Amino acid sequence: MTAPLEAAEPAVQAAGPGDERPVRRGTLQYALSKVGGALFSIAMVIVATFFVFRLLPGDPVRNLAQGRNMTPAQLDLERHRLGLDKPLINQFFDFVGNTLRLDLGTSYEYKRPVLDLIGERIGPTLLLAGTGLVIAVSLGVWQGTRAGWRHGGRFDRFSTGTSLVLWSVPTFWLGLLLMMVFGVGIGPIPGVLPFRGIESVDAPDGFAYLLDVASHMVLPCLTMVAVIYAQYLLVMRSSLLEEVSQDYVTVARAKGLRDDEVRRRHAVPNALLPTVTLVFMRIGFVVGGAVTVETIYTWPGLGQLFYEAIVVPDFTLMQGTFMLITVAVIIMNTLADVVYHLLDPRVRSA
Question: What is the full DSSP assignment across 30-83?
Answer without folding.
Answer: HHHHHHHHHHHHHHHHHHHHHHHHHTSSS-HHHHHTTTS---HHHHHHHHHHTT
